[in-house]
């Protein structure tokens, strides 16, 4: 007998709504694990046990750096991922429909130095919101979509395709966790990543890389500074050249998904230091920054552009011509990636969004990097980004998430699973 999808959706929506206090408690529990980079194990073990309760086949493992170094552009600040496991729970489908990855990162940024109005690791509830580090980015999103998938099992429903729940490490520092899932062989017909998109749909994700530029100078006493070469002053020439490159890169034909941003692909100097004494001419200046790039660009192309920019800047200055700045790529590298706005994955989500929200969704490009690119580029898995968190609260003091937004994303995700994976 054919399955009536609308009846199944109605049952799921009722079940999710009634049971949603459980999802809220799950989020509070996850927030209470301060799962910054290197301290994810307890939270991941907790989720692994939750996945088992939901009837998932569970895979818990620590990624190995040496397995990931073969991927183009891979960078990490860590020597080892020991003590930082990934966890994947698979809800087996009947094999009659399309498979789906639901991917969320467990790592969060530190709580920061600014005092919070409540303990950032308490998961406090206030005015319909849960407060705490990682609520918006992105434990709230992960709970929203994982909980939607879990309700299939609790209602005795079998999805047509496998639903693969991935809780990964290191998204905030380059995406090693999702890359490790790809390397372990996890693939699907589609993927949804519930980053804090303000419930917009992002078919494309920006890439970004960290760079370090060392500018040489010549030391001298401050009273005879004319005998030296001030590296900080020469660094200013490099900063000017980088801003020129930023302007040039943002004149390129832009992906229409980024037309709403005044400067989509920023080059940011986040740190600049030079010299060791007020009365000495600094003989070295070091700047560290981040360059963003679009879905149609590769890591190799962007690195080449920045290197050529430095060469041109050095050619215009007699000192730098003979003492060129040194460029180093370090720390983290996020690839860019995207799918077409009319891809079936996007169209399916747009359709259930219209039904659930009663309006047209906003479809844009993600203003930051996400793990979608690794799934698309290396895992041959089409991926999009859609989640309940508000992007402007990510990484902020008093980060929080609205529970009604989480519930709506859970309901939409359940409808999406029915349409994408099918139900037996």
Question: What features would you describe in this structure?
Answer:
The protein is an alpha/beta fold and 424 residues long. It folds into 2 domains: 5-205 and 336-421, Zn peptidases (Aminopeptidase, 3-Layer(aba) Sandwich); 208-333, 2-Layer Sandwich (Alpha-Beta Plaits). It has 11 helices and 16 strands. The strands form 4 sheets. It has a 6-stranded mixed sheet with strand order 1-2-6-3-7-15, with helices on both faces. Helix 9 packs across helix 11 (403-421). It is elongated and about 85 Å long. The N and C termini lie close together (10 Å). The relative contact order is 0.20.
In terms of topology, how is this protein built?
Elements (H helix, E strand, L loop, with lengths): L4 H27 L9 H13 L3 E5 L3 H4 L17 E6 L8 E6 L18 E3 L2 E3 L3 H20 L8 E6 L7 H8 L7 E3 L7 E5 L1 E10 L14 H19 L17 E8 L9 E10 L5 H17 L2 H5 L3 E9 L2 E2 L5 H14 L5 E4 L5 H8 L3 E3 L14 E3 H19 L3
Parallel strand pairs: 3-6, 3-7, 7-15, 8-14
Antiparallel strand pairs: 1-2, 2-6, 4-5, 5-16, 8-13, 9-11, 9-12, 10-11
Count up the domains. Answer: 2
The CATH topology of the largest domain comes to Aminopeptidase
CATH superfamily of the largest domain: Zn peptidases
Q: Order the strands across the largest sheet as they lie in space.
A: 1-2-6-3-7-15
